[in-house]
Amino acid sequence: MGAAIDITSQRFGRLTVVSRGANKGRQYGWNCVCDCGNTTHIAGVSLRTGYTKSCGCLRVETTRQRRSKHKMTNTSEHNIWLALKKRCYSKNNPDYSRYGGRGIKVCDRWINSFENFYADMGEKPYGCSIDRIDYDGDYTPENCKWSTNIEQANNKSNNARYEYGDEKHTIAEWSRIADIPYTLLSSRLKKGIKMPYALYNIDYRCSNA
């Protein structure tokens, strides 16, 4: 091992050499101060080749940035993305039986990429949550939209839909369309009164229908 070339005060990445240190095996060692404030003891060859550029803080920061490169961790959109995957694939999730247990899946484009999910869905509007258009379909760009709680409720599989003319809606939807109280319309339908008599308070007993 020849004489050491003095590299005191030189910078290598985030490291500044402050003094000669003990040898590291057959390599000369140098005491360094990192930009983060930590001190460390590095072999000269690692500094000169660029193999070591920090006390280790650079690797930690790079890993953290890679794991959260979208910078949206803990946002509503990111939490929703995590939740829909859990209810489709985690058997310990309390909602699994209604999703993954029924065969509901997350599409390949979304399953491992929050960036793709956000690019397709966009920012969540206030008061909305993710809704599948086809209640029995998968989580895909074509089958998902942001919906209000009322819209979500109307899309549940146990919501009966009533047909009149060329339209078919839930009781809640018909009550808004016809401007009739939900409870009144629901009561009429439960009594067996058919459309459109239930909607417009027509005396169905006088109808030939």
Description of the molecule:
It is a single chain. The protein contains nine helices and eight strands. The chain has helices at residues 44-48, 57-67, 76-89, 108-111, 114-121, 149-154, 171-177, 182-190, 197-200, and strands at 11-12, 15-24, 27-34, 39-43, 129-132, 144-147, 162-164, 167-169. 33% of the residues lie in helices and 19% in strands. It is rod-shaped, with a radius of gyration of 32 Å. The chain has a four-stranded antiparallel beta sheet with strand order 1-2-3-4. The chain has a two-stranded antiparallel ribbon with strand order 5-6. The protein has three domains: 11-67, no CATH class; 76-154, no CATH class; 162-206, no CATH class. By secondary structure, it is of the alpha+beta class. It starts with 10 loop residues before the first strand and ends in a 9-residue tail after the last helix.
Average pLDDT figure: 85
Q: Tell me the Rg in angstroms.
A: 32 Å
Shape: rod-shaped
* Class inferred from helices and paired strands: alpha+beta
Q: How are the strands of the largest sheet arranged?
A: 1-2-3-4
The main pleated sheet reads as: 4 strands, antiparallel
**What is the number of E strands?**
8
Strand content: 15-25%
Q: With helices defined by DSSP (H or I, 4 residues minimum), what is the helix count?
A: 9
Integer tally of domains? 3
**Termini distance?**
106 Å
Topology pattern, helix = H, strand = E: EEEEHHHHHEEHEEHHH
Portion in helices: 25-40%
